[in-house]
From TrEMBL:
Belongs to the glycosyltransferase 20 family. Its EC number is 2.4.1.15. Homotetramer. Involved in salt tolerance by producing GG-phosphate from ADP-glucose and glycerol-3-phosphate (G3P), an intermediate in the synthesis of the osmolyte glucosylglycerol (GG). One of its GO terms (molecular function) is glucosylglycerol-phosphate synthase activity. Pathway: Glycan metabolism; glucosylglycerol biosynthesis; Glycan biosynthesis; trehalose biosynthesis. Coiled coil: none annotated. Keywords: Glycosyltransferase, Transferase. This is Alpha,alpha-trehalose-phosphate synthase.
Length: 473
């Protein structure tokens, strides 16, 4: 039977080794969270990295393999040097900051390219080994930009999709990459290339024209005698699942207890991976600015910021963590009392139930990345508000801003205006809050993750087969 083969750097579950114990936990991040349920429904395979298993004993390894097999996950094991050079190095020190417009963070030396290329080859080999005629292959994200091209060499007739989960930057930024042509050609191995927004599609087409002299005809590019399609497919979440979680009695009890502990206060909430793209310091500065200029809010605000540990071996993330720690300390030192502090900073992971409780308890949700491909947290917040209440403050630099028009829009670089936006959200009257939240929820419901999967796969599977397209070309 034809199957869906999902291919991504990270599997939906990650192996965590702590001292003598080993656990298989759910992975964090938009891709893993978003695709988990479609994978459960599809009955296909998911090929990716389960995290570091090098320190596991034989028995532990067998247990982990069995658990992964249960989830229909096919692991690719990376050596410590591959983790450091392909994952932390080229993917997260070069491509990640570059796609988020942070050129100053890209290292001057291009040292890890070879390992990135080799690991992409390993992925392509493994996928080719599991492929059966008729299967659909769906490759995900910037860690695997060469995989579509490598697969096309191995499986010329296969149906291959690629989705880019982070921003695709303007061609002015992309052209600074020494390996720009190889990466673009890698993507062109796919039959369909998807992005979250129309601007990312435009930027990608701009790079194709500039670097490879290729014209995009509406959504079609001719490459090596094949037609390649490109399109915007904004990713959604499992809205229904989040909504029912937010209605569970145990979650509601948690919400009530949180609200009791914050009596007389308004709850501001931020939930992010601890990543320098998420704009946490500027968000903290906006809250600080509000407290500074409006003494009436002092003691009346509780800003809960959850920061999920991420990419802790990459030095930029450690420096960023220190910056956030320092800022939280400064604000709490300045505006805290013996009774309470304005910023409740939680550096750890939370499960979906706990997140649903936090979303439901919040008065105002702050999603203010300085750059973000989509940001599914914004959508989760709306899904978790069946009470039609709560205000979303959303950065205009998140892909989600293209869809969530009834959020309070903010430029996170403008601290003064961001403070205004927080204040506007805090003071918004109930009728307006409800009207906005209803519109947001309607959008998030109509365009959930299952809609996203079927619109991408529907388009991919509806394309004529490669041989027919070659002929038509
Ligand atoms: O959404 C972008 C993304 O890079 C995904 O590819 C990934 O799942 C997520 O962020 C988390 O990052 P990492 O896998 O590096 O922990």
């Amino acid at each position: 039977m034809p199957r869906l083969l999902l291919v991504s750097n990270r599997l939906p579950v990650t192996v965590k080794v702590e001292k003598d114990s080993v656990a298989v936990v759910l992975s964090s991040g938009g891709l893993a969270t978003g695709l988990r349920r479609p994978h459960e429904r599809s009955g296909g395979l998911w090929i990716g990295w389960p995290g570091d298993v090098s320190r596991l004993s034989e028995t532990q390894r067998t247990q982990v393999e069995a658990r992964l097999a249960e989830e229909r996950c096919v692991p690719i094991h990376l050596s410590p040097s591959e983790v450091s050079r392909y994952y932390e190095g080229y993917s997260n020190r070069v491509l990640w900051p570059l796609c988020h417009y942070m050129l100053e963070r890209v290292p001057r030396q291009d040292r890890d390219w070879e390992v990135y290329r080799k690991v992409n080859e390993r992925f392509a080999d493994l996928v080719a080994r599991h492929y059966q005629p008729g299967d659909t292959i769906w490759v995900h994200d910037y860690q695997l930009m060469l995989v579509p091209g490598l697969l096309r060499q191995r499986l010329p007739e296969a149906r291959i999709g690629y989705f880019h989960h982070i921003p695709f930057p303007s061609s002015e930024i992309f052209r600074t990459l020494p390996r720009r042509e190889a990466l673009l050609k890698g993507l062109l191995g796919a039959d369909l290339i998807g992005f979250h927004t129309v601007s990312y599609v435009r930027h990608f087409s701009g790079s194709l024209l500039r670097q490879l002299g290729l014209d995009t005809d509406v959504d079609r590019i001719m490459w090596e005698g094949r037609q390649v399609r490109v399109g915007a497919f904004p990713m959604g979440i499992d809205t229904e699942a989040f909504e029912s979680l937010a209605k569970e009695p145990s979650v509601l009890e948690e919400v009530a207890s949180l609200r009791r502990s914050a009596e007389g206060q308004r709850i501001l909430l931020g939930i992010d991976r601890l990543d320098y793209t998420k704009g946490i310091p500027r968000r903290l500065l906006a809250v600080q600015r509000l407290l500074e200029r409006e003494p009436a809010w002092r003691g009346r605000l509780r800003f809960i910021q959850v920061a999920v540990p991420s990419r802790t071996q990459v030095s930029e993330y450690a420096t960023y963590r220190e910056q956030v720690n320092e800022l939280v300390g400064r604000i709490n030192g300045q505006y805290g009392t013996t009774q309470n502090v304005p910023v409740h900073y939680l550096y750890r992971s939370f499960n979906e139930k706990q997140l649903a409780g936090l979303y439901r308890a919040a008065d105002v949700m702050l999603v203010t990345p300085v750059r973000d491909g989509m940001n599914l947290v914004a959508k989760e917040f709306c899904a978790a508000r069946p009470d039609d209440d709560g205000v979303l403050v959303l950065s205009e630099f998140a892909g989600a801003a293209d869809e969530l028009h009834r959020a309070v829009s903010v430029n996170p670089y403008d601290v003064e205006k961001a403070a205004d936006a927080i204040e506007e959200a805090l003071e918004m009257g109930e009728p307006e809050r409800r009207e906005r939240m209803r519109a947001l929820r309607a959008q998030v419901k109509a365009h959930d993750v299952h809609w996203w999967v079927s619109s991408f796969l529907g388009r991919l599977q509806g394309l004529p087969s490669v041989s027919v397209r070659k002929f038509q070309g």
